[in-house]
Specification:
3 domains, 434 Repressor (Amino-terminal Domain)
């Protein structure tokens, strides 16, 4: 999300930072560029104008032109206003039991997949979840949610295979009974989607909404819908009180300005972002982190959280010990690459680092990508145990055999070995410098 906007706005701030002194004309010129960038990112005109006016008032009021680091000061003001525009983060607090969440939205927005993602999110927090699908209009919708629930331990699907001719109201009653019987913490209801705002289906939704009386009514919106998403949100809010929004397909949109407009226009908080196809690909919406990504500051907190999800404490301690001792095998290398893939891949991780655009350019120029990682894992798997532990025995014939076994070329095998030697050399240098602890101490000083 925001790829093009982040790249463009980072360039604007870079130009400001290169100037030792800023005039009001410089600030005005930068704000004009930011306004264009906002509009091109699909931010509504009303929001863009309001945002620029607020930033300008604050910037001029703080005597930017006289500050020690004017470029950084402008960046800070823009950051603060982005956070304010995105709204305060509001977690879903399962304060009552059972807590009932109803998902609404247009057909194709990703409600069913989002229901599965929410179930996985809360079962990780050791909550017992019941799911039900009231979408009797879309073929296989109920079966799709049944399959998803089967992939999530701690989740119960309310409907049996015989419950195929129930009305949405009957499904709602069944789901409530199942939730009570199972003493579940959370009920997630997936409703029927609409190709457009359909009065008949809206009446059906309103009736079911009254029956369930949910704690949360969350609108699921495909971010690719653009400015129409705001009109959709308004229409649903007129029928049922929408308490929050989940934006889906965030990973596929380079503009994403709807996220900036949504809270301001609708007054509804954005709860989560759907960032991929997997059940784990859902992120709690944090305006500070999103604003940081927008301005090219990265998101180190999310990176650490992803690492903690995929690396156990023992694994991290073992990795640190090996680094300390200068030990690193091809198996270690493959393990790190596999963890990287589980964390979302090279591109996803780079986006969490400051100046990610520049880093991506460097990685691309070096021919390093998610495909490279998969290829390198295949190469390592084609090695014998002896070869993995002693790369020096990898002569020409062995390298040719490994290339054939992994479906790669000898040149690609050679490139991986060179990369391995570089990493091994770095570990040995750390050992010579007195180990990881001493290096960290030196860095601190």
């Amino acid at each position: 999300m925001f790829d093009s906007f982040s790249s463009r706005i980072s360039g604007i701030f870079e130009k400001l930072r290169r100037k030792g002194i800023l005039t009001e004309a410089d600030v005005d010129a930068a704000l004009r560029e930011i306004r264009i960038a906002l509009l091109e990112a699909d931010v509504s005109l009303e929001v863009a104008k309001k945002f620029i006016a607020n930033v300008k008032e604050k910037a001029i009021g703080q005597d930017i032109v006289k500050s020690v680091s004017p470029g950084q000061m402008v960046t800070k003001i823009v950051y603060d206003h982005l956070v304010e525009l995105l709204g305060a983060s509001e977690e879903i607090n399962l304060s009552t039991k059972p807590y009932k969440i109803m998902l609404v939205g247009l057909q194709g927005a990703g409600k069913t997949t989002t229901a599965g993602k929410l179930a996985k999110f809360f079962t990780k927090k050791e909550k017992k979840v019941v799911m039900a699908s009231m979408d009797i209009h879309r073929p296989a919708a109920i079966e799709q949610l049944r399959v998803l629930s089967g992939k999530i331990p701690g989740t119960i699907f309310a409907q049996s295979e015989e419950d195929t001719k129930l009305t949405p109201d009957e499904i709602a009653r069944l789901a409530l009974k199942t939730t009570e019987r199972e003493n579940a913490d959370l009920l997630i209801l997936d409703t029927a989607g609409r190709l457009h705002i359909d009065d008949v289906k809206m009446d059906e939704l309103v009736r079911t909404h009254k029956l369930i009386n949910p704690n949360e009514t969350i609108l699921v919106v495909d971010i690719m819908t653009g400015q129409d998403a705001i009109n959709i949100a308004k229409k649903f809010s007129e029928s049922v009180k929408v308490s929050g929004i989940i934006l889906t397909r965030v990973e596929g949109d380079a503009r994403g300005g709807v996220a900036l407009s949504m809270r301001y226009i609708t007054g509804c908080p954005i709860r989560f972002l759907g960032v991929g196809e997997r059940l784990d690909d859902i992120e709690f919406f944090d305006p500070d982190r999103v604003a940081g990504k927008l301005l090219g500051m990265g998101d180190i907190v999310s990176l650490v959280e992803k690492a903690q999800e995929n690396f156990s404490q023992q694994e991290m301690e073992e990795a640190a010990k090996k680094m300390q001792e200068g030990i690193f095998t091809f198996d270690d290398m493959a393990s790190q690459m596999e963890k990287m893939s589980k964390m979302g891949g090279v591109r996803s991780l780079l986006k969490m680092l400051p100046q990610s655009g520049q880093l991506e350019d460097i990685m691309e120029s070096q021919g390093f990508s998610d495909k490279t990682v998969d290829r390198n894992i295949a190469i390592i798997r084609s090695m014998t145990k002896k070869e993995k532990n002693n790369y020096k025995i990898l002569n020409g014939s062995r390298r040719k055999r490994i290339a054939n076994g992994s479906g790669t070329t000898v040149q690609e095998v050679n490139k991986l070995i060179k990369q391995y030697e570089g990493t091994l050399g770095m570990f040995k240098k750390i050992k010579k410098m007195g180990g990881l602890g001493k290096l960290m101490s030196m860095m601190g000083k």
